[in-house]
Amino acid sequence: MTHEEILAYLQRTIAELFELDAEQVRAESTVFDELDLDSIDAMDLVAKLQQFTGRRIEEDSMRRVKTVGDIAVLLAAQLASSVPAGGESAPPDASATS
Fold first, then answer.
1. What is the Cα–Cα distance from 41 to 12, expressed in whole angstroms?
2. Domains, in order of start, for the chain
3. CA 69 vs CA 3, 63, 75: distances in Å
4. pTM listed for this prediction
5. Quick one: average pLDDT of 85-98?
6. According to the model, what pLDDT value does residue 94 have?
7. What are phi and psi of 30, to 5 degrees?
8. How far apart (Å, rounded) are the C-alpha atoms in residues 13 and 27?
9. How far apart are CA 94 and CA 82, in angstroms?
10. Residue 70: which of 39, 38, 30, 32 has the closest Cα?
11. 3-class SS at 67?
């Protein structure tokens, strides 16, 4: 997925999940100030993002995000990682050891 696709997904998801106008949800929108989300909303969003990525999102990672764009960067990293939602690493590629 490209950064733009991830950002578009986030914009749609955040707008739908929290009943916001899609135009309000921009990369530079601050999550807790401009979008007025609270910690419970953040937990709901994390659950949705974990479902989307199939990977566990660390609580500390979400605490560091300020904007929707920051979440897009976090999601891109999650999609690129090899740690599934269950928390166990994916088995190494057998061809990499040959």
1. 15
2. 3-84 (1.10.1200.10)
3. 9, 14, 10
4. 0.77
5. 45
6. 43
7. -80, 135
8. 13
9. 14
10. 30
11. strand
The reported pLDDT for the residue numbered 63 is 85
41, 25 in Cβ contact below 8 A? no
Q: And the tokens for 34?
A: 């401009």
Q: What is the pLDDT of residues 25-84, one digit of tens each?
A: 999 999 999 999 998 999 999 999 999 888 888 888 888 999 999 999 999 988 887 555
Q: Is 83 helix (H, G, I), strand (E, B) or coil?
A: coil
Residue 33, token pair as written in the block: 């100030």
Bridge partners (DSSP) of residue 67 are 30
Q: Which tokens in the block code for residue 84?
A: 């599934």
